Amino acid sequence: MPKAKGKTRKQKFGYNVNRKRLNRNARRKAAPRIECSHIRHAWDRTKSVRQNLAEMGLAMDPNKAVPFRKRKVLPCLLVSQTLFSAGEAYGGGHGGEAQRACAEALCAKW
Length: 110
Hints:
Blueprint: H1 19-30, H2 37-42, H3 49-56, H4 62-65, H5 75-89, H6 96-109
Helix pairs in contact: 5-6
């Protein structure tokens, strides 16, 4: 009796694959060997990477670990910039010397 066309199953097993190499690569990817013995012995599989590194005193993200200090903008610099830009806007730079001297006098206090 004839068979229905298109009902044969697709081959799923890869016969031409090197199983030894496949298993070795899978083992390497699944759990890489940590070279540092201190980290390897202190590692706890039940904890996350961030928790493990924090307990060891290491940082997951160095940008968040080091405090970033905002620089203070001195008030005299703000005043001098505003006066200088105002002098450039009004008068085309003719009165800039007087305003610059005023700004320097303000900055001398700081």
